[in-house]
Specification:
heterodimer; A: 564 residues; alpha+beta; four-stranded mixed beta sheet; four-stranded antiparallel beta sheet; 25 strands; 28% helix; B: 321 residues; mainly alpha; MetI-like fold
């Protein structure tokens, strides 16, 4: 009996000890020419026309041929375009038309050439009402007939490799809107457009880009392999990039520390020090600020607006007055939130145009300082004083009390909400905090059912303030119920000039108005933190994402030694 | 017995139908919008409206119910809103992953539970019994997610003995068969342990109580009087009867076997039914949630039936009618 137990024990300890063993010695790379990246969730599909997940668009960029080689010129703060599938381009007709010349040597995996027909067909899908692509607004300024995108009038095919795009008017981001990747026409030409999002071909894409999809185990991993037939200027250098779906943040960080994954984001600022001190094989990089957080104020009385069938527009009893909103911003110690939670990875915000867009950013605006005295004065000017001596501000018999809501499970917002509550209490304002389940939270914001909320927003690469700050209150993205005729004019001007530099003065004035009006209290920009194992090199973490230009990634140092 | 089973199955049909109907209305009336993914910067806000229309969410609720009922009656669970693929395919991917995890966990639960319970019962009142009782209560009170996270930090990160997430290493299907199975086994250790360990503490308590009841019976005294060694008395005579409550646990574990373990699957990123359910609830993926509820409901009904039938098989005193 004893011998049997001893044997079992021995076998078990052998099992455990072998578990800990690395395959191969330290000098041998267990994953030669392969990078492993942890992603938070699986992609929805591999069709750039219908995929809605952010991660899917980053992966699709590596599988489908990109029209342009887009880079972000940090010094100027704008996107610059180089040749990719598009060999050269020319502006015609006073810049209202753009002629594209495509490379003639780019092929889909099945050997069929990528042609102008593919591009036109794909834009037809992107603009189709039946498909409802999340990227439909890319064709918003091309030619529309009877309320529908007119692909035949918008895109003219000259020959297999040449096509002309016709726009309704000129604007600075026309090239940006020509950068939607094409899908193979011969695969999708007979597809039912209404069910394009569930088309089986979306799970086995035909690549013409640097990588091809080798394997997709749903909810587990996506294996991208180098596409040997890629004729684009940037073929993949790595043999494989494996994307592992790991949604639990602690688990994801553990895998990075163990060296079983090579890249992950976002890393919490509080984990950075531990990584820098104890894990020298991991480097920390940051993405420039594209995400900001804010307290949204109901500029108009949402309750009255909703109850009247979205007709009655009157100022909100608390936040309808500009002075009150300014006072709230003065009264919130935003720097304290940054110092307490974000450390060096946050930056005070003045509006929602990111400082990365240097040409458009209004450097003349000074962020509101934390100034409770000024806040009190502004509130008094707006009629809010403590008349009954109970320590709470009141006006016309109404106490200054409101509920600040944010989505449950967001530690950063919980931290910010508590500081805001504490700061405003000192001014005599009662803030009740309520957490709401995420999906419900965003739905209620879109329906304008919350008077005050703590949320975040990721800004696009092309400046387009129309949804957020245009006077259309029906627009779910106009969360403040903001209306301003000058802003409407500025948006119109900014979107009807030929170059981005011509648009700059309009966007700067827009920021000045937002700064003055404070429809939101813009809190801070967040620089997302990326952790990368040093074995993974030539990464290009930037405004275009952590996996940007994945095709340039290499493994090991230039000397050839592998670092774990 | 066959007639009894048939009767129970027929009686279960209205029950499951009722369950599905209630689920349908609860989830449809809950706040939240499956098209909320489309409400983001740079996406035309009109797209969300069109997505809602395409998903049939613009129809009045009773009409949606009738449509759904018709589809469900023909075994059609529909297409997932967020994954854009048939719900059946999603389940087909997740069920085997969950089964391997839950079956092993159930096995560990019972094996360990019976062992602890028996040990505790035969040493009743001694220090061994006291220690196992306190330990069992302690283990049973540990929240699963905490135990899971501590094991990830301790066993996976600091000792570097086992992997922390997923069910395979990257690109594991390139490995030879044995290495592939070994890789899977390594990934199974922690989640199976967390799932099986805490429940084993509970099973152990059942086993202990039941065995103590049986040990007092006359036939056990007789067995001892015959001069049988103690291990034979307990192992052969007492255990067989004391196992009946444990068999109930097996029957009632059916919903767990297929439904997965939400917390453990989430922490270890196990690609099973628990994770599918969690994601579906957060994205308001109605077809997936309803299908999973249907499966869980079905398993509860079948599990109860199985427990009753197993009872009758193990215990000749019980007759099913």
């Amino acid at each position: 009996m004893f011998t049997r137990y001893a044997t079992l024990l021995l076998l078990f300890s052998l099992f455990l000890s072998s578990c800990g063993k690395k395959s191969g010695s330290k000098s041998e790379d267990p994953r030669p020419e392969t990078a492993v990246v942890a992603i938070m969730g699986d992609v929805d599909n591999f069709n750039p026309v219908v995929s809605a997940e952010l991660i899917a668009s980053q992966v699709n960029d590596a599988i489908f041929p990109q029209m342009f080689d887009v880079k972000f010129a940090t010094g100027e703060g704008r996107l610059v375009y180089g040749p990719m599938l598009v060999k050269s381009w020319e502006f015609l007709n006073g810049q209202k038309d753009i002629r594209l010349d495509l490379r003639g040597d780019v092929f889909w995996e099945d050997g069929i050439r990528v042609t102008a027909e593919d591009v036109k067909f794909s834009y037809g899908l992107y603009g189709s009402q039946e498909v409802s692509s999340p990227r439909q607004n890319y064709v918003r300024n091309m030619i529309w007939t009877d309320g529908k995108f007119d692909v035949d009038r918008s895109i003219e095919i000259i020959n297999d490799s040449t096509l002309i795009f016709h726009f309704d008017h000129t604007y600075p981001t026309q090239l940006f809107h020509l950068n939607l990747p094409p899908v193979p026409k011969h695969v999708f030409q007979n597809a039912d457009l209404r069910t394009l999002d569930s088309n089986p071909a979306n799970a086995r894409p035909l690549s013409a880009g640097p990588f091809r999809l080798e394997k997709w185990i749903r909810q587990q991993e996506i294996v991208l392999a180098r596409n040997p037939k890629c004729n684009l200027p940037y073929p993949a250098k790595l043999k494989r990039v494996i994307l592992r779906v790991i949604s639990e943040p602690v688990t994801r960080l553990t895998e990075l520390k163990k060296g079983t994954i090579d890249m992950m984001w976002p890393i919490n600022p509080e984990d950075v020090q531990d990584i820098q001190l104890n894990y020298p094989s991991i480097r920390i990089e940051t993405m420039p600020p594209r995400v900001y957080e804010y307290v949204g104020w109901a500029n108009i009385d949402f309750k009255a607006w909703n109850e009247s069938g979205r007709k009655v527009i009157k100022p909100h009893p608390l936040f309808g007055n500009k002075r009150v909103r300014q006072a709230l911003t003065y009264g919130i110690n935003r720097q304290q939130i940054i110092d307490g939670f974000l450390g060096g990875y946050g930056q005070l915000a003045t509006s929602d145009i990111s400082p990365i867009f240097r040409w458009a950013y209004n450097f003349g605006l000074k962020p509101y300082s934390y100034d409770p005295e000024k806040a009190r004065n502004l509130l008094a000017m707006a009629g809010w004083t403590d008349t009954d001596g109970d320590g709470i501000l009141d006006h016309n018999g109404r106490k200054f009390e409101f509920t600040l809501r944010y989505n449950a499970g967001n530690a950063r917002r919980a931290y910010a909400a508590n500081i805001i509550q504490d700061n405003l209490k000192k001014l005599g304002i009662i803030v009740n905090i309520e957490t709401v389940e995420g999906v419900v939270f965003y739905e209620k914001i879109a329906r304008k059912e919350y008077d005050a909320f703590l949320a975040g927003f990721s800004v696009g690469l092309a400046i387009d303030p129309s949804d957020r700050w245009g006077s259309d209150i029906q627009n779910p993205l106009n969360q403040a119920g903001f209306r301003n005729t000058r802003v409407d004019e500025l948006i119109r001007y900014g979107q009807n000039v030929k170059s981005y530099l011509e648009a700059a003065p309009f966007w700067k004035e827009l920021q000045a108005i937002l700064h003055e009006e404070q429809p939101f209290t813009f809190l801070y920009w967040i620089k997302e933190i990326v952790g990368i194992n040093n074995r993974l090199q030539n990464t290009e973490v930037g405004i275009l994402g952590a996996m940007n230009e994945m095709w340039n990634w290499t493994i090991g140092s230039p000397q050839g030694s592998v670092v774990y | 017995m066959l007639l009894y089973i048939l009767k129970r199955v027929i009686a279960a049909i209205p029950l499951i139908f009722g369950l599905l109907t209630v689920t349908f209305f609860i989830i449809r009336m809950a706040p939240g919008d499956p098209a909320s993914l489309y409400l983001q910067g740079n996406v035309d806000p009109g797209i969300a409206d069109r997505v809602r229309r395409n998903l049939g969410l613009d129809d009045p609720l009773p009409l949606q119910y009738v449509k759904w009922l018709k589809a469900t009656a023909t075994g059609e669970f529909g297409v997932s809103f967020s994954k854009h693929r048939p719900v059946v395919d999603i389940l087909a991917d997740a069920i085997p992953n969950t089964l391997i995890l839950t079956t092993l966990a159930l096995f560990l639960n019972i094996a360990l539970g019976v062992l602890i319970g028996t040990l505790s019962a035969v040493t009743r009142g001694s220090w061994v019994d006291n220690i196992t009782t306190v330990l069992a209560l302690f283990v049973y009170s540990i929240p699963e997610f905490w135990l899971a996270l501590m094991l990830i930090l301790g066993v996976s990160l600091h000792l570097d003995l086992l992997p922390a997430a997923q069910m395979h290493s990257p690109n594991a299907d390139q490995l030879p068969m044995f290495a592939y199975i070994f890789d899977l086994a390594k990934h199974l250790v922690l989640p199976v342990f967390v799932l099986g360990f805490a429940s084993a503490a509970a099973t152990g308590r059942y086993m202990r109580g039941s065995l103590l009841d049986v040990i007092k019976q006359d036939y056990i005294r007789t067995a001892r009087a015959k001069g049988l060694p103690e291990w034979k008395v307990v192992g052969k005579h007492a255990m067989r009867n004391a196992m009946i409550p444990v068999i109930t646990i097996v029957g009632l574990s059916l919903p767990f076997l297929l439904g997965g373990a939400v917390v453990v699957e989430a922490v270890f990123d196990w690609p099973g039914m628990g994770n599918v359910l969690l994601e579906a609830i957060f994205s308001r993926d109605y077809p997936v949630v309803i299908a999973l509820t249907a499966i869980s409901g079905l398993m509860v009904v079948l599990g109860n039936l199985l427990a009753d039938v197993l009872y009758a098989i193990v215990d000749p005193r019980i007759r099913l009618e």
